[in-house]
Specification:
It contains 24 helices and 9 strands. A 5-stranded mixed β-sheet has the order 2-1-5-9-6. The chain has a two-stranded antiparallel sheet with strand order 3-4. It folds into 2 domains: about 300 residues, no CATH class; about 160 residues, no CATH class.
């Protein structure tokens, strides 16, 4: 009777955790409506619209982009077609966001399964609860980008690995091959998960004699490329372009970008950052919140101690953490979304650590202290997540800016705007359904004084010529609208970009040498949206640039005040 009651309680708690996970992922899912304000989400959805158009025109399904795998593209396309057949409409943006919310919630369930298989239901519940309110997971679930899909399949592959650690079966390896193949078909980085079956096979081969690589093991591994090519057929059908090096959305180009072999302007924020430490001190700090990160790192250290002493369960989870962290943490480009695949194993290790403290350390550590730590982590993480959700339940700062401009800037004004992938004020009529009456003067950092760049690299223009181009734009403008994204990139690399740094210094800090004969501009309005709840704001200015830029960028409006 006791076991049945405990099982019912555990399932009831799991249901509550999943309900919480689903709720915080659905709240604000229509943010920015009807526009896609997240640049990566815009790119993915635009590719799907192009696939739909291509199919209707000549039954073609080549996405002509390989930086993202085909699984999220074709999945959304096929779902859109099915939805259109039933309703007559095809709202790809909302359908994609719904997919993300569902997959992110199912990832929480998979974490529970992993913890239950490797340790017990308490560990699974704690890990699932921590992930349900991890702000990076919740944030990413609000967009249809590829990361949530990849992490879901990676976590399923980790779940199958936990099963295989207990017992090697045909279905275990088939399930792993399917999940790993789907993850890799979403983003090739997921191929790192193949370290896990090799570790599992090594463990079992030590306990048995005979063939070290049985058929079921080889079949499981073989399924990975099968599913990859199933969802990425143009890697074979159009290999020359798929593996080309001509466009920013080519797989090999993006591979060079993240490794720092190619340094386009949009990665300038990573210049001088410290490999590995940056993910810990920035990406996980903002993506998990400090309390959860501390407990997760303590859990990692504890599990390392257990693994050294022969715990294969701890070793399995650590294997994914270490392999992924060593590979991605050393990259030049360390966008905050790259930390997402670390969250499921890290929250599990956090739960594992607290349960171990409860069970093994109760003589030296009061149980109330363990409960207090766990409760503090959950309460803080939930508070942080609810504060972040205010971003999605408030009107976006870009739309607020447009409304203010329409009400306060005369129609005959000339406005200097940055060509910014996140703001896109240079295309506000197309992007936001708003037809501006003003004359737009576009500052394009990728094209200065008529000289363009290749693959978003800095245009080969001298600082003197750039300075003259800035002065010309300022003399022509009545207003300036910009975010701080390019300002942050260029000013922290002032020695490499002296003209750009001087331009932003002039705007934000007043006059400077060489700028005496240009108009003066004053900041007349700024739009800033920090995560906040009950009057407590999380001022995340120090976060990796895209943490703010994609969903709560700062927007500044300058007005000409001098001749």
């Amino acid at each position: 009777m006791g076991r049945k009651a405990d099982r019912k309680t555990e399932l009831a708690l799991l249901a509550a955790v999943l309900a919480l996970a689903a709720a915080v992922r659905i709240i604000g899912l229509r943010w920015g409506r009807p526009y896609s304000l997240h640049v990566d989400e815009s790119f993915v959805v635009s590719l799907v619209w192009k696939l739909d158009k291509s199919w209707r025109a000549h039954q073609g399904l080549n996405p002509h982009a390989s930086s993202y795998g085909g699984l999220p593209l074709y999945s959304l396309l096929f779902l859109g077609w099915a939805f259109k057949a039933v309703t007559g409409s095809m709202p790809l943006l909302y359908l994609g966001r719904l997919i993300s919310a569902i997959l992110s919630t199912l990832t929480v369930l998979a974490v529970y399964g992993i913890g239950s298989i490797l340790w017990d239901g308490r560990t699974g519940l704690l890990g699932a609860a921590f992930l349900s309110v991890s702000v990076l997971a919740v944030r990413t679930a609000h967009f249809y980008t590829v990361d949530t899909t990849m992490v879901f399949w990676l976590t399923v592959a980790l779940l199958m690995s936990a099963w295989l650690l207990r017992q090697e079966t045909w279905w275990g390896y088939v399930g792993f091959g399917l999940a790993a193949g789907m993850a890799t078909a979403t983003k090739p980085t997921a191929v790192l998960i193949l370290a896990l079956p090799l570790l599992i096979r090594h463990r079992h081969s030590r306990q048995e004699r005979g063939n070290p690589f049985p058929t079921k093991f080889l079949v499981g591994l073989a399924l990975v490329p099968v599913f990859f090519f199933l969802w990425n057929p143009y890697a074979i059908l159009d290999a020359r372009h798929y593996f080309g090096f001509a466009k920013n959305n080519d797989l090999l180009v993006q591979s060079a970008v993240v490794r720092g072999k190619l340094k386009p302007l949009y990665t300038l924020q990573f210049a001088g950052t410290t490999p590995y430490l940056y993910i810990l001190r920035n990406n996980l700090y903002w993506g998990m919140g400090l309390p959860l990160e501390i407990v997760a790192l303590a859990g990692t250290a504890y599990s390392l101690w257990r693994a050294v002493r022969g715990s294969w369960e701890d070793g399995l989870i650590l294997a994914w953490v270490v392999v992924y962290f060593l590979a991605v943490g050393g990259w030049y480009a360390k966008f905050v979304r790259y930390a997402l695949p670390l969250l499921p194993p890290l929250v599990l290790l956090a739960g594992r650590f607290l349960v171990a403290m409860w069970d093994s350390w109760r003589k030296s550590l009061p149980r109330w202290a363990v409960v207090g730590v766990g409760a503090w982590v959950l309460v803080f993480s939930l508070f942080y997540t609810l504060a972040y959700l205010r971003v999605y339940t408030s009107r976006d700062v870009r739309l607020q800016t447009l409304t203010w401009m329409a009400q306060n800037i005369p129609g005959a004004s000339r406005i200097l705007v940055e060509k910014d992938a996140a703001l896109r004020f240079d295309k506000m009529g197309v992007r936001y359904g708003f037809s501006p009456p003003w004359k737009m003067i576009v500052y394009n950092p990728y094209e200065v004084a008529g000289v363009g760049s290749n693959l978003y690299l800095p245009p080969p223009v001298s600082p003197e010529r750039k300075h003259q181009a800035f002065m010309k734009m300022l003399k022509e403008a009545d207003y300036i609208v910009m975010s701080d994204s390019w300002e942050r990139r260029f000013t922290r690399n002032a020695s490499q970009f002296p003209a750009e740094a001087a331009f932003y210094h002039y705007l934000f800090r007043g006059n400077a040498e060489g700028w005496n004969d240009v108009p003066r501009f004053a900041l007349v309005k700024s739009f800033v949206s920090y995560p906040d709840l009950l009057g407590l704001k999380f001022v995340d200015d120090g976060a990796e640039l895209t943490w703010q830029l994609f969903d709560h960028p700062k927007v500044y409006v300058f007005e000409r005040v001098g001749a």
